[in-house]
Amino acid sequence: MVNIESKNKSGQEIIQPLPFTYARVYDQSLAQYKYNRTGIRAAEAPSSLPQSDDTIVGLARETFEKSKWFYSEYWRKKGQPKEQIEFRVGEKTITLYNFNGEIPFTDAHMAKTANVLAEFASKFPQVIDKIDWILIDQLQPPSYYGDSVNYPSNGQTLSDWKIFQLYPRGDGVYFS
Q1: Is a pLDDT exceeding 60 seen at residue 9?
Q2: Is 3.30.2010 the CATH number for 83-175?
């Protein structure tokens, strides 16, 4: 893997660019994303200007980088995960990436995770089909309910990315 995290001279993090570029094409058969240059109500609002090529390319970039978790700036800023472990659940492979360097993934964690995944597969096979990755984050977000002591955020699923994101508090609950 290529390390995508680095710092500039002033110590600020910079992210290496993705290994491809975005370009405006004029052949619709080559386009991955299609955007209208003007809105469908442009005739009703003559003051609205057509979108520039840069704006259209920016919309395509935003759409594409939101399509997969590993293209998103949030996860690219984290650099390489500290650990990568693959679990087989029937014919399905689920990859766990641990971005939390403070909590290593032990053999006991692996056994517990394998048991949890097997239990889910036996009772909720449709859930297993919707998860490709488990990402252990190193940042604990505030509680969704405003009380981080009694109602902490332990994790979340992001179905569009097919991930389960586990927060540090979730590590303690899940792995204790």
Answers
A1: no
A2: yes
